[in-house]
Write a structure and sequence with these properties.
membrane; mainly alpha; Phage_Mu_Releasin; rod-shaped; about 110 residues; DUF2730 family protein; transmembrane
């Protein structure tokens, strides 16, 4: 029995090493090394965090309707400020005329 084993052993070892080499080559092509896998996992985790941050940012942003209402409100405020500016300019002109009349009255000696 040992004689047969010693005669066949080189053939069995050669076939086994060839099968083992082919198996390792197949496994290395089929599966990713752990370091590469960890890099991909970290990249996916970073992308998920960025996506969550972007979604939170988008939730805080106003909608189209809200922006439209804000635009209309700002237009209304602009018109009101324009009217207020005209009123203030009118008052300023009246005050300037009163001051001018007062100064002219002092120069004429009305006082």
């Amino acid at each position: 029995m040992l004689d047969v084993l010693f005669k066949v052993w080189p053939i069995v070892a050669t076939i086994g090493s060839i099968i083992g080499t082919l198996g390792m080559a197949w496994l290395s092509r089929k599966f990713v090394p752990m370091t590469e896998h960890n890099k991909v996992v970290n990249t996916v985790m970073d992308m998920n965090q960025r996506l969550r941050d972007a979604e939170l940012h988008l939730k805080a942003m106003p909608s189209r309707d809200e922006l439209h209402r804000l635009d209309k409100t700002l237009e209304g405020l602009g018109a009101r400020f324009g009217a207020m500016e005209q009123g203030i300019n009118h008052i300023r002109n009246n005050v300037d005329m009163l001051i001018q009349n007062e100064l002219e009255g002092e120069r004429r000696g009305d006082r």
